[in-house]
């Protein structure tokens, strides 16, 4: 259980957090000459970078797996049918992760004790994340 959660967290860091962080630093450096311009500019750059990382993650989805899910042998499935989700649904799921953040990140920890191992985002879009034995 905890191992699956760690892999899910690592996949999120690899596909969203790290790219968004690097992109925001690049944009800040190009526009303001420093990686952290501060104030409203930094907030807007950070939000835009998260959005871009989420879109890229969604567009890279094949068979319910982004590149990070493939790397860590995870797959996102529809909760009812068990079928892999589409890129559009992955994008909606990435957007729904705002609920995980809005709950002071408790939503990201929720799979540790939830019977379906779902984050709040998973509950919103009716998905589950499973471990796969081999890359899909």
UniProtKB/TrEMBL annotation:
It is found in: Cell membrane. This is RDD domain-containing protein. Its main location: membrane. Pfam families: RDD. The keyword Membrane applies. It comes from Bifidobacterium thermophilum RBL67. One of its GO terms (cellular component) is plasma membrane. It is a multi-pass membrane protein. Residues 5-124 form the RDD domain. Keywords: Cell membrane, Membrane, Transmembrane, Transmembrane helix. The chain crosses the membrane at residues 12-31, 43-61. PANTHER family: PROLINE-RICH ANTIGEN HOMOLOG, PROLINE-RICH ANTIGEN HOMOLOG-RELATED.
